[in-house]
Amino acid sequence: MKNKVICSTLLVMFVMLTTSNTYSQLAAGHESNGIFKLSTDNEIRFKLTSLKSERIKGILVSDRGVRLASFNGKISRQNRSIKGDLTYCDGNKGELTWYFDRNTEDAAQVYLKIGKSELKATATRTKKGVPDLSAACPASTLSANTKSTWTGTWDTSYGELRLVQLTMTNQSKMIGDYSNFGHIDANLKNGKWEGLFNNGNREGQVNFVLSEDGKSFTGTWKFDGDTQWQNWSGTKSSSSKPVITYRSATLIIDRINRENNETSRN
To answer: What is the C-alpha to C-alpha distance for residues 135 and 68, in angstroms, rounded to an integer?
Structure first.
């Protein structure tokens, strides 16, 4: 009788171990695992962590291999989708929604959301299999200053303006884009933001001053070569960190990030 009990126990343990190994093997070989290149020049790496509960994790990585955000979510086989939460290196939160294209798991439509700002992109698989998720956040992450009243989305006399205030070693910077026309690169000087902007092939100067309650701003701008300054004002519609999508603005942020990292290593 005792031998039968021992044999039964060993059989149950063997079945559990075999099932566990089978799930692990299936999870490792799942089609959602891999590296995908985004049309924004970043990439996302997915790793299925639980086949049974359809849990998946991943990281959003810059084109230089630096982690931008961590991802935790779930797969929906019925909808051929992945949905979950993004946690950026600077502490901001976002959402990712992913829809595989019809009849393939090698391409997808992607929606990245932070606050009220949403960025749509396409994704193409570049590598199959379980990816490396060890890429680290920058040693000195450039983040939106949480105490800043400038960071956010603004309704202005020239359309929607998205601004991110950055904390640097020697100065404060403000980078943004507006109505998909161009970008702004400004420095804080004597309580006023002074900087440059571009609009297509034209460039100019801009000055902004924040109201006392932090809910609106007034300012002026002019194209290079012009003598007449024009008014530019706006009111804040969201205090959440916006998604900066204009390519030249993201390049400026990347450049500042590299310089900050080099400074922190020296």
So the answer is: 9
Query: Torsions phi, psi of 24, nearest 5?
Result: -65, -40
Answer whether CATH 2.40.128 is correct for domain 152-265: yes
Q: How far apart are the first and last CA of the chain?
A: 72
CATH 2.40.160.90 fits 31-128, yes or no: yes
Instruction: For residue 196, list its beta bridge partners.
Output: 185, 205
Between CA 63 and CA 199 the distance in angstroms is 25
Cβ atoms of 46 and 34 within 8 Å: the answer is yes
Condensed to tens digits (0 to 9), the pLDDT of residues 88-116 reads 776 677 899 999 998 899 999 999 886 66
pLDDT tens, residue by residue, 10-42: 344 433 434 444 434 445 557 889 999 998 888
Most confident of the ranges 34-48, 51-65, 246-260: 34-48
